[in-house]
Amino acid sequence: MKILVKPNPELADFIENECRRDSSWQGIVSRLWPNANCVDTIITGTMSHHIPNIEFYSNGLPIVITIYACLECFLGINLNPLTSPREVSYTLIPTMAYFEFLPIVDGDDNQNDNCNKEKDKHHQELVDLVDVELGREYELVVTNYAGLYRYKVGDVLRVSGFKNNAPQFNFMRRRNVVLSVDMYKTNESELQNAVKKAADHLMSSRITMP
Questions:
Q1: Residue 163: CA atoms inside 13 Å, Cβ hemisphere, count?
Q2: Within 13 Å and on the Cβ side, how many CA atoms surround 205?
Q3: What pTM does this model have?
Q4: Which whole number is the average pLDDT over 74-85?
């Protein structure tokens, strides 16, 4: 108890009053933290459907996305942190790990045990960082200083452009994350698009959920 911060009834009353003032909580972030300049988060790829919610609660504060990382290692940075979250590209830092890439073949996320030999052969062709092709999708493979060798991170990246000679990537989705209904498999990006279209339809029809 000696190291705990002393109670602050005034601050508690302020928070309670702000939360009660508007039932929708629109702009609640900027009201509780009036000095906030931005929202620092990671919300690219299949997480981007949360962007409207963040904009709603933050009263339009800039959404800043700075880094790209995973449990295995630090991967890269966003050289333009103030760009739109829907257009964020990451530049991988080659000194953080050794990066290789597995080209994604159409239908990879929905493949089954009967996939053809051509796809299996294609999966073995690892591509180095300097050899990726603009507009193509790859699964990221890392070899890090901790001892992981050619570890499949599970992230699917698309080459979006180049900074000088360094390729830049959009995070697209997680690999092999599927919704299975009656033997029909829907990958993460398809599910996200379906939910977005349904939400847009409900908004245009002025239908609200309870």
A1: 12
A2: 9
A3: 0.69
A4: 89
Kindly tell me if the per-residue pLDDT of 34 is higher than 80: yes
The beta strands (E) that lie in the chain are given as 39-40, 63-64, 67-69, 74-77, 90-92, 98-103, 127-128, 137-143, 151-163, 166-174, 178-181, 184-187
| Three-state helix/strand/coil letters over 101-156 | EEECCCCHHHCCCCCCHHHHHHHCCCEEHHHCCCCCEEEEEEECCCCCCCEEEEEE
Judged on CB neighbours under 10 Å (0-12, 13-18, 19+), 151 is middle
- The whole-chain average pLDDT of the chain stands at 82
Cβ within 8 Å of residue 69, ≥6 positions away: 75
- Give residue 122's pLDDT band: very low, low, confident or very high (50, 70, 90): very low
Query: In sequence order, which residues have a C-beta less than 8 Å from that of residue 2 and are 6 or more positions away?
Result: none
Phi, then psi, of 158 in degrees rounded to 5: -115, 135
